[in-house]
Design goal:
Order of helices and strands: HHHHHHHHHHHH
Largest sheet: none
Distance between the termini: 13 Å
Number of strands: 0
Strand content: under 5%
Shape: globular
Number of helices: 12
Length: 285
């Protein structure tokens, strides 16, 4: 079950990143974050009321608040790093955030078996290669590296925090709701500051109403991914769940190939293959 839910997480995150990437070509990134997460808040609020999730309120929700504060910071740092580029270096570096939840699992006493340990190494290597790292070309700015590492740490911290935010299914709905409310509050404040500095919040043609279904998908897929990861981490070793969930760059690359006809470079194809081999080893270990 751990492998199943963790793989579902990677699919959902990969598709959410793909959709978000397409949307940010037409709509400012902060606006995409705030609108998509606001839709998620509305849906999660209804789910919490319907399931009686408020009864699960407790001190553990502070983990959800922390995840909600860290998430937007990590995302903005990642977008800024991508802008500084080159993307072929930034993208795979962002995946090393998996070291955070894996490290937490090891500190808590988890010890993967030999097959799982090999699978972790193979899968992480595959994820990095799937990003298509550039070994030649323009030098990478130190600021881009620093921002990428900040984003990677943030992504990994969110994975670790959300896994600690609940112990039951109804409690998970409440934790995700609190996380998303915090996301919207933090993102909304950042958007307000950005607008005050003269950056437009909307494209020239106004609010993209036609993109509303896509915005909803991005927000809900991201929420669902956090939920399936939390279940995966509770059902089995965090070290396994975190690595399998980190395969989302492979999903994003495959989606780009299928929908945008983007051709995978040889190194990306090799990385996707290694990630698949690592997945099999982790699931069978």
């Amino acid at each position: 079950m751990t492998a199943l839910f963790a793989l579902a997480t990677s699919v959902l995150w990969g598709l959410a990143d793909f959709g978000g990437g397409l949307l940010t070509r037409r709509v400012p990134a902060l606006t995409v974050v705030v609108v998509s997460q606001s839709i998620a808040v509305a849906v999660l609020g209804a789910v919490v009321v319907a399931t009686g999730g408020w009864s699960e309120a407790g001190p553990q929700l502070w983990f959800a608040v922390a995840a909600g504060l860290v998430g937007p910071v990590a995302m903005l740092a990642f977008y800024k790093a991508l802008a500084l580029g080159p993307m072929g270096v930034v993208s795979p570096l962002g995946s090393i955030g998996v070291a955070v939840p894996v490290g937490v699992g090891l500190v808590l006493g988890e010890r993967p078996g030999l097959l799982q340990f090999v699978g972790i190494l193979v899968a992480v290597a595959g994820v990095c290669l799937a990003g298509g790292p550039q070994f030649r070309g323009a030098p990478v700015q130190r600021q881009a590296i620093a921002l990428t590492l900040l984003a990677a740490f943030g992504f990994g911290a969110v994975m670790a925090l959300i896994a600690e935010a609940s112990t039951t299914l109804t409690g998970l709905f409440l934790a995700l709701f609190v996380q998303r409310v915090t996301n919207v509050a933090a993102g909304g404040l950042a958007l307000y500051v950005s607008v005050r500095r003269g950056t437009p919040a909307l494209p020239v043609e106004g609010f993209p109403w036609r993109a509303l279904p896509a915005l909803a998908f991005v927000g809900l897929a991201d929420v669902a991914a956090n939920g399936t990861y939390s279940i995966a981490a509770q059902q089995g070793p965090v070290t396994v769940a975190a690595v399998l969930a980190s395969l989302y760059p492979v999903v994003t690359a495959v989606a780009a190939r299928g929908f945008l006809r983007e051709r995978l470079r040889a190194i990306q194809a090799a990385g996707a293959g290694l990630a698949l081999v690592g997945t099999v080893l982790l699931a069978s270990g």
